[in-house]
Amino acid sequence: MKICFLVPDGVGLRNYLYSQLIDEFPDEVEIMLLTVLPQEVVKDVALAHRHKITHVPMSGYQESFKGKLLKEVITYARLRYNTRKVKNDTIMINWTRKNFAFVTRLFFAMAAFIGFFFSFSYRGIEWLEKKYSKHLQSTGYFEEQIRLLKQHQPDIVFSTHQRSLDGSVIVEAAKVLGIKTIGAIYSWDNLPKARLLVRTHHYVVWSDYMKQEMADYYPEISPEKIVVTGTPQFEFYFNKDLYMDRAAFFAQVGLDPEKKVLCFSGNDLTFPCDEKYLNDLAEALMEMPEQQRPQVLLRRCPVDLSGRFKPVFEKYPELIKVSDPLWKSHSKQWSFIVPTQEDIQLLVNVALHSDAVINVGSTMAHDFAVYDKPAIYINYDQPTVTHWSAVVNNQYQHFRSMPAKDCVVWLNSKEEIADCVNKALNGPLPDAETRAAWFKVVALQPLAEASQRIAGTIMKL
After folding, report:
1. Cα(176)–Cα(186) distance, integer angstroms
2. Which pick of 26, 342, 401, 457 has the fewest CB atoms within 10 Å?
3. Which residues of 298-335 are buried (b: 16+ CB within 10 A; e: fewer)?
4. Same domain membership, residue 340 and residue 324
5. Cα-trace Rg, the chain
6. In a 3-state reduction of DSSP, which class is residue 338?
7. Is residue 131 situated within a structural domain?
8. Distance in angstroms (rounded) separating the CA atoms of residues 71 and 54
9. Domain limits at 296?
10. Structural domain tally of the chain?
11. Residue 98, pLDDT score
């Protein structure tokens, strides 16, 4: 059997290529990596596994006006349809098309106008998607992928991300050739966003909750085609070979091992206030008695290269220490900023040795939950920022998966910072079962067996 891993960008690298997934396949299985990532990244992946990996470079798809218009009409129609279905207006925030030139804004306005009328009929949306599939099959890129797949003859194509435009055409070509296809839904918050571009025969999802979301948003997909496997991204936290001694780790990042540590994890630049929240946190902590004051360990989002936190940690050098992600940039494009194995170890130790995490609605709350560490969710707005709201962000559809509000500590105002930090670090907190309940909804347990379940699912196709 030959399995083609379709990796259209760098974000799937850690979860599916640096995890144990590849090594869960029998030795006789051939692994083919179809990716835009450079050869040096593929070599790093190959060194991490016993399987020989064949690298097949992947070209990019140049989208036509017709294809882009169809795609955006479908996206808008689905977002409108989903908004009414689950009665949550925040879903439409995923249609943010304001910061563009006039001609581009005009294009998106046209897509929204057409999409609005199709949003009232699910059959109409499905009709559009059939038109879009036929369009993809009429392109030169599709014919190119037909030739490539005939040349390499994989038995199965496994797509690591459901939003890839390039990947959507490759999967269409695979289906026409009778090649079995299976796709991963990359993250727990992806399904309401109407960006299921890569339409595979089967899907693997994180949880029963996500499987129900697939039924809600894509009822045309048979439940038998959706397999709950969990996600490999949490497996690294169970690998004790990655653990560093606490004193050694603290010395590496400049922390005092005698004091508690609060990790501030940043988001990407679509969250425009993170540096302001870090400054608020620092101001509040500096007002605490020194013997009670925790240290702050800043981990910015790997794709945030803006430097926006620098004035804050330079202002409070004794309070804030920095643990920059060890990612490599192979291009200025977001999808070519890729994780390294060294960063996996760094992130594991950040979560292992910090006492709590604070952020605006980040998945890092779940990373810390692996070690039963509490999370503080920032839930107040910055008065100088009027185009974005943390309060609205925390009403996004994926937060409705939370079985109880006290799964995290909610920070509802700047004045509450010291109290919330003290609660997260020193208690009292709800019991462990209550705090773990959300994570059990989000990701199938046992967490460490996700790669094994995914590999087993692929082998059964």
Report:
1. 24
2. 26
3. bbbbbbbeeebbeebbeebeebbbbbebebbebeeeeb
4. yes
5. 23
6. strand
7. no
8. 32
9. 237-442
10. 3
11. 65
